[in-house]
Amino acid sequence: MEGVEEIVIAGAGLAGLATALGLHRKGVRSVVLESSATLRASGYAFNTWTNAFRALDALGVGDKIREHHLLYERLVAFSASTGEAAAEVSLKMQGKSGPHEIRCVKRNFLLETLENELPEGTIRYSSKIVAIEEEGSVKLLHMADGSTMRANVLVGCDGVNSVVAKWLGLPKPILSGRSATRGMAEYPDGHGFRPEILQFIGQGFRSGVLPCSDTSVYWNYTWYPSPADGDAEESVAKMRQHVLAKLKAAKIPAEALDVIERSEMSEVVSSPLRFRSPLSLVRGSICRGGVCVAGDAFHPMTPELGQGGCAALEDGVVLARCLGVAFAAGGHGSAEAALAKYAEERRWRAIRLVTAAYVVGFVQQSSNPAIKFLREKFLSGLLARVMVDMADYDCGKL
């Protein structure tokens, strides 16, 4: 049909780029619409667990990521109240499908790696969808600049405030009551941290220190905001002091505080953590009439498992595989069946991840005396193993 794009992907985040690259590997052309003027690398870095590396290997870029990022040997969870290690979990173990592999990957490096593998012109920047209409079997996409596009297949990878998810009728994500801030510190002469994940849990917050390479360290901090926080969210300087004050009041080692003191932070100093209700994922439409969602548009989740970005990469591989088979078999006529197959494969995986992330976060940050006692005596090790177990998953090849 003249003037109609076969596959349009809304959003050049991890899910969007993974889907586009997977389709490219399958010989299927797509167009990626990104609302910003450049790739958005907010968040600095994210934990890339075993399941994500299996997806990256399927896309053909796993070794390029490994080359620049440290392989973790263990996870250590400390009590913020006592300063003592509440749990130590080796990350050098065998999973159901092979050895575990966990690294903290710089977000901009990963996005640029995926982009560089795509044909030139695949991504159209400053292109934001504001409304969607149906025109027979075709989707009419109204853009922010007043132009329109037509697409046979529309994949919504447009984040937690997804226009595509809204069109599908999925309810808005729920506020968890927690917020997060993060940063990246550079150590040109080396930082001295071992290749391990350090977590500090309790006192109403959860903080992590994660070396990405020999010279860079990522950190994150999540907490329950309150009026006592004052104007902490007004500026980078005030947020940094807020975080440091909270950590200094707890039993946090000096080297972890130094990471925050010397780090670069985003202008968006904090963000509320939201998730999509697991019940809405049971009942809701993940796909309909040649339209589907992936990544945060599909399953926004709280960050305690470190699985948001990993699951987005899984989505991209599965979706590209399903659509690739459909287009090889005869084009867009079988695309709706392909999207239904994708939704069937991904629905319960997403529900498990969203649910587990919320429960782990609640236990890690609860100030309830009983939960605090159980966390420091018994639960920290269990929660750490849940994180590892959730990563023991293979989304398959393209």
UniProtKB/TrEMBL annotation:
<dbReference type="GO" id="GO:0071949">
    <property type="term" value="F:FAD binding"/>
</dbReference>
<dbReference type="GO" id="GO:0004497">
    <property type="term" value="F:monooxygenase activity"/>
</dbReference>
<feature type="domain" description="FAD-binding">
    <location>
        <begin position="6"/>
        <end position="356"/>
    </location>
</feature>
<dbReference type="Pfam" id="PF01494">
    <property type="entry name" value="FAD_binding_3"/>
</dbReference>
<dbReference type="InterPro" id="IPR002938">
    <property type="entry name" value="FAD-bd"/>
</dbReference>
<keyword id="KW-0560">Oxidoreductase</keyword>
<protein>
    <submittedName>
        <fullName>Predicted protein</fullName>
    </submittedName>
</protein>
<comment type="similarity">
    <text>Belongs to the 3-hydroxybenzoate 6-hydroxylase family.</text>
</comment>
<dbReference type="InterPro" id="IPR044560">
    <property type="entry name" value="MOase"/>
</dbReference>
<dbReference type="InterPro" id="IPR036188">
    <property type="entry name" value="FAD/NAD-bd_sf"/>
</dbReference>
<keyword id="KW-0503">Monooxygenase</keyword>
